[in-house]
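Worked example (supplementary).
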Amino acid sequence: MTVNGTRLELGVNAGIEHCRTMLEECRDHAGTGADVEINAADVARADTATLQMLIALRRDLRTNGGTLKWLAVSCEMHDVAERMGLIEALGMPAVATPAVTNSPAEN
Amino acid sequence: MIDLSEFHDVFFEECFEGLDIMESGLLNLDGNGADSEQINDIFRAAHSIKGAAATFGFDAMSGFSHIMETLLDEMRDGRRAVERRGLDLLLESVDCLREMVNSTKAGDTTPPPVVADLTGRIQQMLAAGPGAVAAAPAKSATAEPEQDGAPAEEVVAAESAEKSADSVAGSRNLWRIMFVPFEGLLKTGNEPARIFRELAQLGILEVKADTSCIPALDVIDPEVCYLSWNLTLGGDMTRGQIEDVFDWVTGQCELSIDLISGELPTQKAAASLSVVESVEPPVAATDQPAPAAAAVAAPASVKEESTVSEQTESSKNQTNAEPAAEAADGRAAASTAAAKDNGSIRVGIDKVDALINMVGELVITQSMLSQIGEDLSRVDSIGLERLRDGLIQLERNTRELQETVLQIRMLPISFAFNRFPRLVRDLSNKLGKRIELKLTGEQTEVDKTVLEKLGDPLVHLVRNSMDHGLESPEVRRASGKSEVGVLELSARHEGGDIVIEVIDDGAGLNRERILQKAVSKGLVSANDDLSDERIYNLIFQPGFSTAEVVSDVSGRGVGMDVVRRNIRDLGGNVTITSEAGQGSRVTIRLPLTLAILDGQLVRVGEQVYIILLVSIVESIQITAANMGQIAGRSELYRLREQYIPVVRLSELFGVPHAVTDLQAGLLVVVESEGRRVGLFVDDLMGQQQVVIKSLETNFRHVGGISGATILGDGTVALILDVAGILNECARAQESKDREFPRLAVA
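After joint prediction of all chains, the assembly is encoded as:
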């Protein structure tokens, strides 16, 4: 996972092994009240640990007036979130969006 | 951060256990027909491997297990007959899966080529339909509800409802499943997404997640599971099938599975997977959901777990019954190899508890002695008495601790025996013989090291019995025997040893042919008057084979001498008895453990050496009249009409100040691999149990020495390598040096 401004880049592996590193990044953003963008286009592996942390991030952001926006979601990531009944809690789009579109950071 | 590789060893170990269960279960089904409990056991083992492999990301393994599971599921539900063709295919698949586990363990996750072939063949079988359904449908015994703790009326009601629902073909059951993982579930490598994926394969799954327990980021522990789920599952599944999916997380979650009436809403059936609805606590701010992206990907779909490859005619032809025996052997070898590099051991909790208890006792004793030792100057007669008591207690504690620790290394011999049902099945098919295998004493415990090294000799013996001992059905019938030959493997404790026997009711050894062969090889003289036992035991000589046809099963004469050498390496011995037309009995006698052995302390000059008791034939005082010399150098001693070479240990190891007058010392006659030598020592000391320490690990290899141990006074005593000394002795005689080499000890 890398950070680019208010954008979180989830790498290929967003599994439990990396969740502590992700947590630090998420904490940096949670209290800022900023609008955070997540790029999950490359995620080939995600699991419960990651998803529940992103739910916490989304919730904390909303509490502080910010939002969490999905720039792209790989089919794999979307599949896991859907399978676990977490699409709505994560605010994910209804279908996978594997390509990053209209990213302000890239403009 | 969780490193899942930490759990790999346990996973591989459990895979091998699961594969053993599958193999023995399939073999039982082969002999005894459909047995619902047996099929369930096989299914559960396959299911566990599949689930665990998926958890660890070993997708090929998981996918292949999945397709095996599908075939097993049809058998389990009685939709498919349990017949030879399917069992053969499953047995081949077990071999393949074992190969996959082995290669994955070795770091290679590439599936072997045979996976594609087997996958194709299983799919072909599945596509061809169930065929004849077993006469006694293997209705899942475990599929019946288990309602532990529920009131009796509820149990009856639940069972009744379930049976009623299950009995209607094509009916749609609706199950409500409450799944509340305990906090540590994720840390054990379990993943709810995997569970839901498997549930979704059973029918239509509706998932409602409860996210209300997820705390704020500043206090969250990402490795703790804060989520819980309410699931609704619709389809023709049974409770047992659902429970099987949760097998892996038993004890790590709250789980309730209830059959509810009514049908699952069908509005999302096409998607066949999940419907999103989460329970979230209210929040103050309103989120702006991201707009749907312009580029829309294909809808999420369930990924196929298995990779199905095209089946070609050539690949079909490559896998048939012909290499079955080789596969079994290869599998046995792989299993042995796996066992060899497996440094872990599973220990019953009772043994660990006993060990902890012993250590507790030791701590008390140590504390008591420390108290006395605090001021030795003030120890009076009472204190001395307490000191003596303490030392006696310490000795007892140490002995008990030693025994308890040794118990930990003991494993049932079934670990070695379990490979044989498959081996015998495959080999008897290949040889065209009908053979019944009987296993007795499988729970007899033996040291892990002994167990690991016992496998190969037993395989040699079993193959020999099957190839040369047991006759074909025609021959047996002609000689008035049952067409089915009996091969028995038995184990028992006898004294301080373990006795293993391989018994067959075959033709027995051909005394005359063995004698003829031995004479032609110059092993014995035609005029020698040899007992039957002596003649039969000639087959353990290197290169000895009376087989007229050298087959790939046995007959090259490379088996039995290896058997004897391996058994002797373990400190044991092997003998054979036989009766013409009635069969043979090979008896292996082994020490229970190799970790501690009984040794004889001998003195040479000021040095103390240890000779393991198992090597000692006898110790004698030398009579000058019986001494002789060859070419004025090598000394021989005549012991009851047999001349044995004498080796002076003082000269061998360059020990000064040792006794040189033969009549003033003692001769310890030792034996290894049928050869004897007399070791000349100054004196015999006591006997004691010795804990063998590797000299190579702590120092370097020294000829004639197999290890070292620490004596009670703290000095190091070297343990003689009798086989090594005999080899040196033989080499010296062959080189005609007539002088025994000196093995320098630095």
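Two points are worth noting when inspecting this output. The first strand of chain A starts at residue 2 and ends at 4. The radius of gyration of chain A is 12 Å.
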